[in-house]
Design goal:
The protein has 396 residues and is an alpha/beta fold. α1 (9-15) runs antiparallel to α3, α11 packs parallel to α15 (382-394) and α13 packs across α15 (382-394). 39% of the residues lie in helices and 15% in strands. The strands form two sheets. Strands 1-7-6-5-4-2-3 form a seven-stranded mixed β-sheet, sandwiched between helices. Strands 8-9-12-11-10 form a five-stranded mixed β-sheet. It starts with 8 loop residues before the first helix and ends with a helix. The model has no long low-confidence stretch (mean pLDDT 95). The protein has two domains: 8-258, Type I PLP-dependent aspartate aminotransferase-like (Major domain) (Aspartate Aminotransferase, domain 2), CATH 3.40.640.10; 261-394, Aspartate Aminotransferase, domain 1 (Alpha-Beta Complex). 48% of the residues are buried. The protein contains 15 helices and twelve strands. Belongs to the trans-sulfuration enzymes family. This is L-methionine gamma-lyase.
């Protein structure tokens, strides 16, 4: 169907870029399990290698199964093109290694995923790139952190782990005015709820391990943006900086996952909203952070950027870390684990798990308290999730 690109989100996630009649009627796209490709002439090989014609040469750079996934993800994010990688961190590092060089600076929000923080704070410095951290909830702080060597700004929204919100349009406008790239990690919201490119960002990143894959059984990453940037990331960051190619079978699984992405994210969001309301009304809870609550910090930004609150809830207990440990040990349905976006409800303690790479001083400086908990609300029957959480809270 030639009009698929103009169809709705779910239709494109299921159909875009593939006609079963082109593949002997196979309803599911074929899985290409090959590492290398032959050509009918040396001229054809050279044309493909130089980017003068479409085709495939070697699986580290591109594979037809990956290409279909890239086309669908790009469509869902409203991007010109995309490249998939072996993990979310591979997506981040391939992007940075391709677009930055020694002597450059990048301004980064002070709250990001812990391993990404380590890459910015320690890894990039080994190659002469300096990360400058700023509070991205204050656009004026971002502007103040930009210097003559700055080449890009980077942030997550909602941010891991406390779900703080950044105004994409405001930060992108500042960066664009200085000739800088805006890079946004959209893992938590997914393109179902938020599309950063529509608000002025240049590049969108995903850990496809999370909601895009959606079943806790794979590792994958994705970068979406303008063709020129994606070409550079594929041919530099992916091909020879990291070599972190997504396997064709994993690409096949992510293709399967995004077919139900819209439905899953809607269910995650509705259940998470109910969880946030339960937490807000419980005597043991000191504070709740959820973009879907009307009185959450940054609620005005949420109304502009997000179509729903998402599937994650962060909260602090009045009893601090000791109460948090008691709660985690009391839950029967929710599992203690570091990931998110799975069908299973998962809970974790950021200070000792996903954000342990932040020093205690940095956690205190950036507002990551020792008592903060992050809950990834799953797809179980909502009443069961609520009952499990309530029995654990009542023990406090």
């Amino acid at each position: 169907m030639s009009d698929i690109p103009q169809h709705g989100f779910a239709t494109r996630a299921i159909h875009l870029g593939y006609d079963p009649l082109d593949e002997q009627g196979a309803l599911s796209p074929p899985l290409y399990l090959t590492s290398t490709y032959t050509q009918d002439s040396i001229e054809a090989f050279d044309q493909i290698r130089l980017g003068e014609r479409q085709g495939y040469v070697y699986g580290r750079t591109r594979n037809p199964t990956q290409a279909l996934l890239e086309a669908r993800l790009a469509s869902l994010e409203g991007a010109e093109a995309g490249v998939v990688t072996a993990s979310g961190m591979a997506a981040i590092s391939a992007t940075l290694f391709s677009l930055l060089q020694s002597g450059d600076e990048i301004v980064v929000d002070q709250i990001v995923y812990g391993t990404a923080f380590t890459l910015f704070a320690q890894g990039l410095t080994r190659f002469g790139v300096r990360a400058v951290f700023a509070d991205f909830t204050r656009p004026e702080a971002v502007a103040a952190a930009i210097g003559p060597k700055t080449r890009a700004v980077y942030f997550e929204t909602p941010a891991n782990p406390n779900l703080r919100l950044v105004d994409i349009a405001a930060v992108s406008a500042i960066a664009r005015g200085k000739g800088l790239l805006t890079i946004v990690d959209n893992t938590f919201a997914t393109p179902v709820l938020q599309r950063p490119l529509a608000h002025g960002a240049d590049i969108v990143l995903h850990s496809a391990t999370k909601y895009l894959g959606g079943h806790g059984d794979l590792l994958a990453g994705a970068v979406l943006g303008r063709q020129e940037h994606i070409d550079a990331i594929r041919l530099q960051g992916l091909r020879y900086f990291t070599g972190a190619t997504l396997s064709p079978f994993t690409a096949f699984l992510v293709l399967r996952g995004i077919k139900t992405l819209e439905l899953r994210v809607q269910r995650h969001s509705e259940s998470a909203r109910q969880v946030a309301q339960l937490l807000r009304g419980h005597a043991a809870v000191a504070d709740v952070f959820y973009p879907g609550l009307p009185d959450t910090p940054g609620a005005d930004i949420a109304r502009r950027q997000l179509s729903a609150g998402g599937g994650l809830v962060a909260f602090e207990l009045k009893g601090g870390l000791a109460a948090g440990r008691t709660l985690l040990d009391s839950l029967k349905l929710a599992r203690i684990a570091v990931s998110l976006g799975d069908p299973e409800t998962l809970i974790q303690h950021p200070a000792s798990m996903t954000h342990a790479s932040y020093s205690a001083e940095d956690r205190e400086r950036y507002g990551l308290s020792e008592g903060l908990l992050r809950l990834s609300v799953g797809l179980e029957t909502p009443e069961d999730i609520l009952a499990d959480l309530k029995q654990g809270l009542d023990r406090l």
